[in-house]
Write a structure and sequence with these properties.
Elements lengths: L3 H26 L1 H28 L8 E4 L7 E4 L2 H24 L6 H19 L4 H19 L5 H32 L10 H7 L7 H19 L7 H8 L2 H26 L4 H24 L3 H26 L4 H32 L4 H4 L7 H14 L6 H21 L9 H31 L5 H8 L8 H19 L1 H11 L1 H4 L12 H22 L4 E3 L6 E3 L9 H38 L16 H20 L10 H20 L2 H25 L2
Antiparallel strand pairs: 1-2, 3-4
Length: 716
């Protein structure tokens, strides 16, 4: 039975997708009208998601979670549900779309293909909301694939060679991830008979630990790993992160903000489902995710540190922050029933990263739409004498760096606390040790070092844009002259509102951040957690260590190793010292997929072809050798021979009696053989045709109907 919640959830998913085509039609006639229409649709979606969030909070005391079904779609139907987490992330997604839509109006002022961009902007909004509100893996997969293909258009928007190459990488990872995810869905459905998240709750315990099920553990793991591959590809987890550093620099800045802030979280949403429902409190699964998170966290941070491109640095930073979130998810599995601090930290860092990257990518968009450059040496000094942009970028940098009084500090504190808590609990004998204390101590220091790397590369960006002067004085004067004219009011509004949320969340963690974490408590199946003193010395100490690491890395590595003085003792400039081994795409993927595999399979195919030819030749010369014939096989068959003999007899008789002066001589043997061969080929073509098959079907149907009629009339 339909209710208001059902209607609102369906409207959040399908309204933007339908409105996308309406907006495209409007844009063909009126560009300004299309922009306003897109703003209105994004705003309506935000309002509807806000209503759902309020309903969820109001029903938290005793309301049931509704399940919304749209039957018959693809045979299995679409299923949506509502809880605190879904309402929360649906609202965050809608908020980010609304802000980027406002910002897009100015950003795309001189871009071509704007109508196409807005079409896929709204399509992707609906698909993303469909992912977050999905109630089963099938619905998730449908909207996941729609989201992947519609967002591909963002990456290749300007249609330059580098954009098309990045788009190819993005699409390859998306398609591979989608296919492997679909394989995992098939395996899971075959094992359990359901894809519904609620019904899969406790799946591992139900089907593996219970001996009566008879389902081997490896089959559950195979399904889980396939799904992890698909979701990890979208999340940008190592080693499937290669699309992020490629796609973000070439995509428009508003699209980059959404790709980094929301679409990667759609992948994390799937990983959270796997962790909280299928492999709930599974130490082996948690250990694997932790290792994956550590590699992703470190590799992403190193890529960002070495980058000399503004948006590429932010993109690599997204890889690193996904690693932080994965560390929290992994720790939740290791901690078992003590998982509250890890799960809440993971959720909060997802939220924080989404909002921070919204601010940072829009700020990068302001730089690009004014100078159309992203190289740090070329945009150096752009932010001088631009106090609003300076403050906004600084807030984003402090937030992602985990500096106290900003939102990123709260989530990183909880993630760090989960590692410390695990070491304490295994030393106390409360939980079994999957990893030794020495290993976890190493993980803790890697975590703090990665936080220091974050501070170092964000300091590098801030100093480059807002402190240093451009090496070319004329260029610097041009940048300074843009003061007050580098963005319009709508863009300034979007940036200011987005940035204002970050310190607000950091100043009031007990109210805002804990409230956000409470909304996702039931979805994550987290245990109740005691109140955390975020600003105690033990928690501040972790942030201080990361800050010291960051300062040392910036001073010793960035300023000395990653910068070089011009010849003649001029200004220092940033240099690209990216290690080759960090570029997995060119180091591994492209050589393997484009060179090694084609060569290997080519050799294999040539070998098999030669082997088959050899077998055929041997058989022809032995078992199936041709018989030696004394003469050529005669044309036709016995009937054509008989007919030819008869025709020749009558011809000779006519020649003897009637045509003595002009006798006729025909080769009836050959002529009738040709007629027979033509008739045989035509017959073969007819019998193999679809028309003949339909004819036989009709004849059979007529005979069947006639039989039933006769049986009914005569009582046979």
């Amino acid at each position: 039975m339909y209710n208001n919640t059902n209607i609102i959830v369906e409207a959040v998913v399908f309204l933007p997708m339908l409105a996308a085509f309406v907006g495209y039609g409007i844009g063909r006639k009126n560009k300004d009208g299309r922009n306003i229409f897109a703003d209105i649709i994004a705003g309506i979606t935000l309002i509807l998601c806000g209503i759902l969030a309020v309903q969820t909070l109001a029903g938290a005391a005793g309301g049931s979670q509704p399940v919304i079904e749209i039957p018959y779609v693809c045979g299995m139907g679409l299923h949506f549900t509502l809880d605190g987490f879904r309402a929360l992330y649906g609202t965050i997604a809608a908020f980010m779309w609304f802000m980027t839509t406002l910002f897009s109006r100015e950003y795309f002022g001189h871009y071509r293909n704007r109508n196409r961009y807005y079409l896929f902007l709204l399509l992707t909004l609906g698909a993303t909301e469909g992912v977050f509100f999905s109630a089963d893996f099938f619905t998730t997969f449908v909207f996941f694939e729609i989201m992947s293909f519609t967002s591909y258009v963002w990456v290749v928007h300007d249609e330059k060679p580098e954009s098309l190459r990045a788009g190819a990488t993005y699409l390859a990872v998306a398609v591979m991830g989608g296919l492997v995810m679909l394989m995992g869905i098939f395996l899971l459905f075959d094992l359990t008979g359901t894809l519904n998240f609620a019904e899969l709750s406790g799946c591992y315990d139900k089907y593996v630990l219970t001996t009566s099920s008879g389902i081997p553990e490896k089959k559950i793991w195979a399904a889980g790993l396939c799904l992890l591959f698909g979701f990890g590809a979208k999340a940008g987890a190592f080693p499937l992160h290669i699309w992020l550093p490629k796609a973000h620099p070439v995509a428009p800045a508003p699209a980059s903000a959404l790709l980094s802030g929301i679409l990667t979280k759609a992948g994390m949403y799937g990983i959270l489902i796997l962790t909280a429902y299928i492999f709930f409190q599974n130490a082996a699964w948690g250990g694997m995710i932790l290792i994956l998170g550590v590699f992703t966290m470190v590799i992403g941070a190193l890529l960002a540190l070495f980058s000399v491109d503004l948006k590429r640095t932010l993109a690599c930073s997204s890889v690193s922050q996904i690693g932080f979130i994965l560390v929290g998810v992994g720790m939740a599995g290791l901690l078992g029933k003590e998982n509250a601090v890890a799960l809440r930290g993971s959720l909060l860092h997802m939220v924080n990263h989404s909002l921070i990257k919204l601010v940072l990518f829009m700020a990068a968009g302001v730089v690009f739409m004014n100078v159309h450059k992203l190289d740090l040496n070329e945009i150096r000094g752009f932010g001088r004498k631009k106090p609003l942009l300076n403050v906004i970028f600084l807030i984003g940098a402090l937030g992602i760096g985990g500096i106290p009084l900003f939102n990123g500090y709260v989530s990183k504190t909880l993630l760090h606390e989960s590692i410390v808590e695990y070491v304490f609990l295994i030393n106390a004998g409360v939980i079994p040790a999957f990893f030794t204390t020495s290993v976890m101590n190493a993980v803790e220091w890697i975590f703090l070092l990665s936080g220091g790397l974050t501070i170092a590369y964000m300091t590098k960006l801030y100093v480059c844009l807002f402190v240093e002067k451009n090496a070319d004085e004329a260029v610097q004067k041009t940048y300074d002259a843009l003061q007050g004219k580098y963005m319009n009011r709508a863009s300034a509004f979007a940036l200011t509102i987005s940035a204002a949320l970050l310190p607000l969340m950091g100043f009031l963690p007990g109210i805002v951040m804990d409230g956000i974490a409470d909304m996702g408590q039931s979805f994550l199946r987290a245990e109740v957690m005691e109140k955390v003193s975020y600003f105690s010395f033990s928690n501040l100490k972790g942030a201080l260590i990361s800050l010291i690491f960051g300062a040392l890395i910036y001073c010793l590595i960035v300023r000395f190793l990653l910068m070089k003085k011009e010849s003649g003792g001029g200004e220092k400039y940033y240099i690209n010292r990216m290690p080759v081994w960090l570029d997995l795409e060119n180091l591994i993927y492209r050589p393997v997929l484009l060179k090694i595999l084609p060569f290997a399979f080519g050799v294999l195919c040539r070998f098999l072809d030669s082997l088959v030819d050899t077998i055929v030749v041997v058989l022809r010369k032995t078992v199936y050798r041709d018989e030696k014939l004394p003469h050529e096989r005669p044309e036709g068959n016995v009937f054509t021979h008989l007919a030819a003999f008869t025709a020749s007899f009558f011809e000779r008789l006519c020649n003897l009696l009637l045509r003595r002066k002009n006798p006729k001589k025909e080769d009836y043997e050959h002529k009738l053989a040709l007629v027979h061969e033509e008739w045989r080929e035509n017959t073969m073509m007819i019998t193999r045709s679809m028309s003949f098959g339909l004819l036989l079907f009709c004849v059979g149907l007529i005979l069947t109907v006639a039989y039933l009629f006769i049986k009914d009339v005569f009582g046979l």
